[in-house]
Amino acid sequence: MNIHYLTLFPEMYEGVLGTSILGRAKEKGIVSYHAVNFRDYSGNKHNKVDDYPYGGGAGMVLKPEPVFNAMEAMDLKSPRVILMCPQGRPFDQKMAEELSEEEDIVFICGHYEGYDERIRTLVTDEVSIGDYVLTGGELASLTMTDAIVRLIPGVLSREESHQEDSFSTGLLEHPHYTRPREYRGMEVPEVLLNGNHRLIEEWRREESLKRTKERRPDLLSDQ
Ligand code: SAM
């Protein structure tokens, strides 16, 4: 998979994409990351990427030319082009699964008041990572990248498997315990110590259901 970011702040990507599982996925050749500064494609001599809104009002608007020019320069066959936008479809695990099968993904990251509406003609999806407003799309695109890349086969090791993760099963995940068996008076549930795999599975399933009912009953009604 090739992931491209159209951004005014390519330096924001280096640390996150070079670290831990995202960095390993790149080293293994499973994914490549390309942060492109669309200021380089402004098409004007002052490298201006934003301008005042027609009709007046506060804030600056991202001009169409830099984004169109940068997209054309990338010349990708049939990418998923995702506009990071608080007004978009809310991102979730299902969308991460769907996107993990793509060949090329482009994230367009805004950083001002808004986009010139004509930029929307370039995109296949408008996506929000939650009902709050960030200063720019960079952190949102990194959040999505993390959720997507870990689902690509070969990225996680068997121990790190995502099959049992919250949302993958439609439920929240069951509680976990590790050594020591007793810590400050808090005991590990007996069922996890007896080696009976059937009973352990049953306990995990019940705990998973209980946790989902308590914390996210909306997930149960989605099933
Ligand atoms: N004026 C815009 C509005 O009210 O919809 C918000 C612009 S925001 C300050 C600047 C940029 O941050 C957006 O263009 C988008 O790329 C990104 N952004 C902010 N919040 C986001 C969210 N919840 N999900 C995805 N991207 C977001």
Automatic annotation (TrEMBL):
| Location in or out of the cell | Cytoplasm
Q: Which residues bind S-adenosyl-L-methionine?
A: G110, I129, G130, D131, Y132, V133, L134
The catalytic activity, as recorded, is: guanosine(37) in tRNA + S-adenosyl-L-methionine = N(1)-methylguanosine(37) in tRNA + S-adenosyl-L-homocysteine + H(+)
Name it: tRNA (guanine-N(1)-)-methyltransferase
Annotated GO biological processes are:
tRNA N1-guanine methylation
Q: Which residues form the tRNA methyltransferase TRMD/TRM10-type domain?
A: 1-221
- Entry keyword set: Cytoplasm, Methyltransferase, S-adenosyl-L-methionine, Transferase, tRNA processing
Q: Does the keyword Methyltransferase apply?
A: yes
- Species in which this protein is naturally found: Salinicoccus hispanicus
Please classify the protein's predominant subcellular localization into one broad category.
cytoplasm
Protein origin, superkingdom: Bacteria
Gene coding for it: trmD
Keyword match S-adenosyl-L-methionine: yes
The record's note on quaternary structure and interaction partners says: Homodimer.
Q: Which family does it belong to?
A: Belongs to the RNA methyltransferase TrmD family.
- Entry EC no(s): 2.1.1.228
A single Gene Ontology MF term assigned here is: tRNA (guanine(37)-N1)-methyltransferase activity
- Provide the function of this protein: Specifically methylates guanosine-37 in various tRNAs.
Question: How is this protein annotated for GO cellular component?
Answer: cytosol
